[in-house]
Every structure is written in C-alpha cells, then in structure tokens.
Amino acid sequence: MSVALEGNILVTGTSRGIGLELVRQLAQKSGGGAHIYACCREPEGAGGQALRQLSAQHPGKISIIKLDVADEQSISAAVEAVKKKVGASGLNLLINNAAINKPASPASLLSTGKKDMMEVFETNVAGPFLLTKMLHPLLQSAAKSCSAAEGMSCRRAAVINVSTLLSSIEKCPETFAMAQMYPYRTSKAALNMLTSCQAENFRADNILVAAVHPGWVRTDMGGEQAPLTTEDSVLGMIRVLSTLSSKHSGKLLDWEGNSIPW
Description:
It comes from Oryzias melastigma. One of its GO terms (molecular function) is oxidoreductase activity. This is C-factor. By secondary structure, the protein is α/β, with parallel strands linked by helices. It has one domain (about 10-255): NAD(P)-binding Rossmann-like Domain (Rossmann fold), CATH 3.40.50. The chain contains seven helices and seven strands. The longest helix is centred in the middle third of the chain and has 31 residues, at about 115-145.
C-alpha cells in the first residue's frame, strides 16, 4: 500500500543530480501541506542556481538551507535553522543523499591514499550519522504526532540513506571489475551498517530507517554511460519510499523495491 509523502522533508546534496531531482519531484508530487528543506553546500553560488530557480517555481514550498555534511558546525547550524521552521510538528522524512567519490574513478587500490579514504568517510558516513543524530528529536516529534495505530512510514517519520549496489559485500565479485572505487564502496558499506544500527535504535520511536540504491544514474558521479536518467531513478525511488513500512526498516532496497543483500 502506498502513501503520499507529506509533512516536513529534508534532503541533502540538492544542488545537482539525484538530490536536485528529488527536490523537483517531491515538490511536484507531495501534498499541499508538504514542505521541502533542500540542503547544499553553497546555495548562493553558481552551483546553487538550478536549486534557486526550482525554489522560485514552487513559492512557499521549498526552503534552501546551507549545509556541508563534512563540517560539524555547518550541520549544527542547519539543524537549528530547520528546528526554528518546523517547530512542534517535527521532521517527517530525512533523505541523506549527499556523497562524494574520491579519487576519480576507477579509484583503484594504487591510486587511493589515506586522505581519500578519510575524506569520503567523513562525508558519506560521519555526515549522515551526525545529521541524523541531531535531527532525531525532530523525527521523534513527527512520529509522536501520528496516532498509535499508524505504523512506520515515510509519511510519519523516516530516515532514508542513499546507498548503492556497490556497497554489497555479497555482490562485490560481480561488480568489482566495473568500478573498483575503494573509498566509495567501503564508505557505503559502512553507511549500510549505520542504517541497520539506527533502525534498531529508532524502532521504539516508530521511526523507519532504510537504505536505497538509486540505480546506475547519469550524473557527474555515474557518468554518461549510465543507463538511468535522474528522472526515472527518482520516480522509482519515490514510489518505493511511498510503500515502505516496518518490515523494510533496516533493509537495503533498490529504486524498484528489490532487496539487495548486504
């Protein structure tokens, strides 16, 4: 059973690619009571132009928030800004989309150094960890505002971590040759464990936590050879998000709703 996504929705990494398309489709497909908090590192710069234009097309529905998930002070400031806006209604949906890949693909063993590993982990793992931790009280508020009979859903209170098929340890022998990407793969495997841990931690609060693989998408990271457009990927992701329930908490799914092994 699907539910329309509603309420306060926060998305990270929204200046381009999948993040920008998530904001676009959420603004179009969510109900009139929904509000999207679109976070990116440089909202006032040239990189934020497309996001600013999108916000102007949906007056009153999109708030642009400055956020660098690799900077703890930036995370704290963004959380405070969101807290002032949402008030007692809390946060219904957090989508941790922001991520980096270093060094440039294929990011082989020989080309990867300690600095690459640490920078990727800081953005792809520590960032979502801290942001979710700081936003937990707002997610709790949203979850409590629903009736006791209503189960877990992305409409009530949920955290969605954007992961990847490349994070699957079981699937590594099948996927390694196409993209070695040592820092990216290992960081997303760590994000999967974070997803599983927070799913258990937040279960008592009726907050759903899941990871979603958006597919191989034509973005700056995915490359021009990728088979999926951002539009089709996000369309599938939103369909999946609208059907999630307690049985999906702690799981890794793809953009079509198929389960991916750890």
